[in-house]
Design goal:
This protein has a single domain, classed as Peptide deformylase (Peptide Deformylase, Alpha-Beta Complex), CATH 3.90.45. The protein is about 20% helix and about 25% strand. It is built from 4 helices and 8 strands, in the order H-E-E-E-E-E-E-E-H-E-H-H. The strands form 2 sheets. A 5-stranded antiparallel beta sheet has the order 1-2-3-6-7, sandwiched between helices. Strands 4-5-8 form a 3-stranded antiparallel beta sheet.
């Protein structure tokens, strides 16, 4: 078990386009260890998801989801625990939603971010098995946020209206009093 340091915005490693997971790496001990490290780091930080570049790992690999309801967001829809390699996202329709996001690499801040309402995402699990899901709402938002990390995009780069961007402790005092950032 290794909890890694999470890189913060400004680190150039967060701006890279990540390398694909090689076919030969699927099922390897090394890839399994990285996946375990990503989950350990995400759980230690109370995050909803984490992307490999956030721990300095230059791979198209993200983890997200939870078996447990998040105590801070009990009404939030549950997203299944997922490891996703080499993802491809396709919007299903032109509809967008805007909602608040935070990021472990941008601690202390929240912003309203437009995302596709419904998406299909495909990719591979760490054993090389295919993943193909069509999702909407919060699940779709989490996937788009995490996969953005693989193309060097942090959510503030997606904010369109900067009147809806600010410090968590100011915007959501009750949340900030109890919470880590995610
Ligand atoms: Ni993030």
């Amino acid at each position: 078990m290794t909890v890694h340091h999470i890189l913060k915005m400004g680190d150039p490693r967060l701006l890279r386009v990540a390398q694909p997971v090689a076919a030969s790496a699927f099922g390897s001990l090394e890839l399994r260890r990285w996946v375990a490290d990503l989950f350990d780091t995400m759980h230690a930080a109370n995050g909803a998801g984490l992307a490999a570049p956030q721990i300095g790992l230059d791979l198209q690999l993200v983890v997200f989801g939870s078996d447990q309801p998040n105590p801070r967001y009990p009404d939030r829809p549950r997203v299944p625990v997922t490891v996703l390699c080499n993802p491809v996202i396709t919007p299903l329709g032109a509809e967008e939603d805007e909602d608040w996001e935070g990021c472990l690499s941008v601690p202390g801040l929240r912003g309203r971010v437009p995302r596709w309402s419904r998406i299909r995402y495909t990719g591979f699990d760490p054993e090389g098995g295919p993943i193909d899901r069509s999702v909407e709402g919060f699940h779709a938002r989490v996937v788009q946020h995490e996969c953005d990390h693989l193309i060097g995009k942090l959510y503030p780069m997606r904010v369109r209206d900067f009147t809806h961007f600010g410090y968590t402790e100011v915007l959501f005092p009750a949340l900030a009093a109890t919470a880590d950032d995610d």
